[in-house]
Specification:
about 270 residues; Alpha-Beta Plaits; Aminopeptidase; seven-stranded mixed beta sheet; four-stranded mixed beta sheet; 13 strands; about 25% strand
């Protein structure tokens, strides 16, 4: 037994995308396109899913680059794949979204906000150690999840977006140690939530509540949550048909991006009044 190198893995994946067909042609290539760094993405508004057996998967590429990543988000597409897979580009239907005004503040979360606000040893920081927040999201163990989609290549691409001012992070600190947080992408007045992590109770929810409060105050009306989960539903997120999401996206992209991303934990005060 030996470990496959990258070329062998890509060859194996390509073989999966080649389907045996009953047609006269013999072998049928999947219609999911393989993209080069500068190739345009399929438009999810005008192109149906290329392979009905993999709904929402629009394209595949060997690598991921920051400019390619930004183009994908502007088209309502995001990457989601595992280590040793090619980059898989998705635009699911429906799309999970959260209106910042609809965030559900439970009784226990309100108590956590009260404690956080009153504890001088706990702070909220914005855009501090972006790659560190990403690594924490990648390495934090989660129930029912084996591995992570946040690869080194993903961290490099999103960190480049951060340096360009298009990706941001919110971290919760306790005694100067990061104990929770999230990172996201912002283009125009569209915010795309990416991943959260929590090392103490409700720390990721505190970061999300702060993001929602800031978005609400700056006219951001939808946060993209990408995939539907019970956890997101419990926080107030809802599925939205893809065509409506894409229409909203184009409107939001035409608006000026909120700036600067600079706030602290006092943004959470709105949930205590």
């Amino acid at each position: 037994m030996h470990e496959l190198d990258t070329s062998e893995i890509l060859g194996f994946i390509r073989a999966i995308f080649c389907r045996a067909s009953e047609s006269d042609d013999g072998l049928f290539m999947s219609t999911i396109p393989w993209l080069g760094p500068s190739d345009p993405f399929p438009d999810p508004q005008t192109h149906s899913d290329p392979d009905p057996e993999v709904p929402g998967l629009l394209a595949v590429s060997e690598r991921i680059f920051a400019n390619q990543l930004e183009r994908a988000y502007r088209n309502g597409i995001f990457p989601w794949y595992s280590v040793r897979q090619p980059v898989l580009w998705w635009s699911p239907d429906p799309r999970m979204i959260l209106n910042p005004a609809d965030l559900k503040i439970s009784h226990s979360l309100r108590k956590s906000i009260q404690h956080f606000m009153g504890d001088p040893h706990m702070q909220l920081r914005v855009d501090h150690d972006f790659s560190g927040v990403m690594r924490a999201c990648a390495t934090t163990e989660r129930a029912g999840q084996d591995g992570t989609w946040i690869t080194h290549e993903i961290i490099d691409a999103y960190s480049a977006l951060h340096e360009q001012g298009h990706a941001h992070c919110i971290s919760i600190e306790q005694h100067s140690q990061t104990v929770g947080g999230l990172y996201c992408v912002c283009l125009g007045k569209m915010v795309f939530g990416e991943s959260m992590f929590s090392r103490v109770k409700d720390s990721s929810k505190l970061a999300l509540a702060a993001l929602c409060a800031w978005c609400y105050d700056h006219g951001v009306t939808l946060i993209d949550c990408q995939q539907e989960t019970a956890h997101l539903r419990s926080l107030g997120a809802k599925p939205l048909p893809r065509n409506y999401f894409l229409q909203h996206l184009q409107q939001a992209l035409s608006q000026k991006e909120p700036w600067p991303w600079n706030f602290d934990k006092t943004v959470l005060q709105k949930y205590l009044v």
